[in-house]
Amino acid sequence: MALLRFAVFRFLTMLATLVVVSVLVFLIITLPPGDYLSNQINELRATGQSAGIAKAEFLRAEYSLDQPLYKQYLIWAGFMPGPHGFAGLLQGEFGWSFEFDKPVADLVGGALWMTILVNLAAVLFIYAVALPLGILAAAKSKTWIDYTSAFVGYLGLATPNFLLALILFYYGNRYLNLPIGGLMDPQYEGQPMSFGKMKSVLIHLIIPTFVIGTSGAAAMMQRLRANLLDELGKPYVETARAKGMSEPRMLTKYPLRVAFNPFVADIGTLLPSLISGSVLVSVVLGLQTIGPLLLTALKSQDLFLSAFVLMFVALLTLIGTLVSDLLLALLDPRIRFGGRER
After folding, report:
1. Per-residue confidence band for 48, with pLDDT thresholds at 50, 70 and 90
2. 159, 263 contact by CB (below 8 A)
3. C-alpha dihedral over 184, 190, 193, 195, to 10 degrees?
4. Which of 68, 122, 200, 341 has the most beta carbons within 10 angstroms of its beta carbon?
5. What percent of the chain is predicted at pLDDT more than 90?
6. Helix runs in the chain, H state only
């Protein structure tokens, strides 16, 4: 019951935070002078194209860009009716991309799923690599295993993702025949799921997963090693050893649980950091994720497209934080539920 109250409170807090973030996102995007349509109107006036100016002015009125800033936000968020009634984020209407001349929902639909799939695979790779290597490095401190893990970790942190992508782009395709670009072979696009299509997706995920997850795995491994070494040096560990408790049982029963807390808390920032850090990787590898779309939208001041992508990243951050809070509450009995001890 206490966990349920804790989850409900965290969920309501997430919704309130999302509203505040939406205000900040909208304000920051509209902060630079001008917008896509204003810039287009100025260019058309300079060339004397009156028909294009009329269309741009119509779009400004159609999407309430001629209204005061606070009304633009309320209509975009869905809190206030616009020219088409209540048609904002709350109603599932994401606006129009002026740069690509199509609805934002149609533009980002496939990119969102690819982004989620690629980054979910990267998260699983990070935890699968960082957890065993971090524990092993701490348990075998000051041995060749520890030094090798440290070298691999520093190499992963020092190598830029886009450079690693270029290296694997060449050698992976040349020597291992690994495909580069896209999520699957062209013949499977638009086809129902099958064994061949699933195999193609998994093969295409190898290089993006490794490239995007390498630096995150290296950083998390070093952090887990440092936390675990700190716990292994505390008096209760020496007491457990003096009582004859075996090393593996002692390690998993006490210090690992404490050292694992920051490891779980990283879930809240891992997904958005992977997405923001994979923009150049997506460009290099030709992945149709939201990273290149965001880059294009910000450069062209495409209001609704850039606002939606940033809101999507913010939503991932809040969902990750909610998941990490719930996992921490289950992992550590010292976490308070609703102001009371568990």
Report:
1. low
2. no
3. -50
4. 122
5. 3
6. 2-29, 36-47, 50-62, 69-77, 104-139, 144-158, 161-175, 195-232, 235-242, 247-253, 255-265, 267-277, 279-285, 290-300, 303-331
